[in-house]
Design a protein that fits this description.
Helices cover 46% and strands 10% of the residues. It has helices at 13-16, 18-29, 49-57, 82-85, 97-112, 116-132, 143-147, 150-159, 166-178, 183-203, 209-214, 222-253, 266-278, 311-315, 346-366, and strands at 7-8, 32-37, 41-46, 62-63, 139-141, 284-290, 294-296, 299-301, 306-310, 371-372, 394-396. Helix 5 (97-112) packs parallel to helix 15, helix 9 crosses helix 12 and helix 12 crosses helix 13.
Length: 408
């Protein structure tokens, strides 16, 4: 399937100007673009909104079974993208058919049992603790000091981890998701942490997500539960952290959201929704595999070819988006949570939204007259074609006293 004009799925433009890059790909190659992954591994990047809808809506033709891949013989054991793609991993990501639906129900049930008021309380407590650590200084990096720490602390508590395990989990998750030299090490740490948690909960069940998944009557093995918890942690932490960071960046740099910095709240939801359209944390996802030869977007796709889901490219497809399209007011037809039977479960979306919105609101409540300390154009992104998040978001504000665990 390799074509001479395939586009490397790497390089600085994925950080500096992805919207322009996706437009050029669409102009030069159409809705389905040939790309090269690390090591010149070929794949297709689906950028068309309709084509992505077709791929994600037809699990029979475009399967989530990675065992179908026709490139496995060319993939080394230390390939850095293995944690993102995986060879027949026993997780929900690579399970198909009725078994996938059963596993999705197990995850949804475990997350739905989270009490909304408890979730909000955890979010506020951890957010306040993080703000307490910087509020007297008058300056902070809202990525390293806040957004990169809050989601995993909340998720760790919901899943059953101790608060002390959070920092190491952050590092492991970031290493794994960035898909570079420490990706395998990050995946290994996360797997060991999950195995230890489940061994503990098997002996001493508690009111947490891990215990509820172990108690499910679907007959899932401990390895399957561990794999699904790893997926849930990875999918719930980094994209939510980037959702917080990207939304705060938008609110600090776009005058349309200025009022929200001084007590308004409707603009918070609008900024968050616009980010899901225009600056979505999850840019590209691996993937789907063709079960037979087929045609897609004018391309001849062979059986076993890997198709990457270009979520941001599809969100900005000019075939469905006109200039100035209304993005607020509840327009949720974006692909940021996926589509089809493998989309992010609704309870997981709700958890992510509560964490992100609470995190943003606590910043606005606690840090008065917040402002960037650098020009907006100088803000940089992490080097990943998969996720789009800021490397830092330096701000200044009037120093305020810490709450010290008192109620806001």
């Amino acid at each position: 399937m390799t074509t001479p004009d395939a586009v490397p799925l790497s390089g600085p433009r994925f950080q500096t100007e992805p919207a322009v890059l996706y437009r050029e790909m669409r102009r030069d190659h159409g809705a389905v673009t040939p790309v090269l992954l690390d090591g010149d591994v070929p794949a297709w990047l689906v950028l068309g909104y309709r084509e992505l809808h077709q791929v994600t809506g037809d699990p029979v033709l475009f399967s989530r079974d990675s065992g179908l891949w026709n490139q496995w013989e060319n993939i080394p054991a230390d390939w850095p993208l293995l944690p993102m793609i995986g060879r027949k991993q026993p997780s929900i990501l690579y399970t198909v058919g009725e078994r996938h639906r059963e596993r999705a129900a197990m995850i949804s049930n475990a997350l739905e049992a989270v009490e909304p008021s408890e979730l909000r309380r955890h979010c506020e407590r951890f957010a306040d603790e993080l703000i307490d650590a910087v509020c007297t200084e008058g300056a902070a990096d809202l990525i390293a000091d806040y957004a990169m720490l809050l989601p995993v602390r909340v998720l760790a508590r919901l899943y059953g981890f101790s608060d002390e395990e959070g920092p190491a989990l952050v590092t492991a998750l970031n290493d794994m998701i960035d898909g570079r030299e420490r990706a395998i090490a990050g995946q290994t740490h996360l797997a060991r942490s999950m195995a230890a948690l489940l061994a503990e909960r098997r002996q001493r069940p508690a009111d947490d997500v891990a215990s509820r998944m172990l108690a499910d009557t679907g007959g899932f093995s401990e390895e399957e539960v561990a794999q699904d918890l790893m997926v849930m942690m990875a999918a719930g932490h980094q994209p939510t952290a980037d959702w917080i960071g990207n939304s705060l960046r938008l609110m600090l740099t776009d005058e349309r959201f200025a009022a929200s910095l001084f007590g308004g709240r409707n603009s918070v939801a609008e900024a968050m929704n616009e980010v899901l359209w225009e600056d979505t944390p999850t840019q590209n996802v691996a993937g789907r595999w063709a079960t037979r030869d087929t045609q897609l977007g004018g391309r001849r796709v062979r059986a076993g070819d890997l198709l990457l889901l270009g979520l941001q490219g599809a969100n900005s497809d000019p075939q469905v988006r006109t200039h100035g399209s209304e993005l607020t007011g509840g327009n949720n037809a974006h692909f940021s949570f996926g589509h089809g039977e493998h989309r992010c479960p609704f309870p997981a979306q709700e958890v992510a939204e509560v964490i992100a919105r609470t995190g943003i609101e606590v910043v606005l409540d606690r840090l008065p007259d917040i402002d960037l300390t650098v020009p907006a154009a100088s803000l940089t992104r992490r080097p990943s074609p998969w996720l789009r998040g800021l490397t830092e978001l330096p701000v200044r504000f009037t120093p305020t006293p810490a709450l010290g665990g008192t109620s806001r």
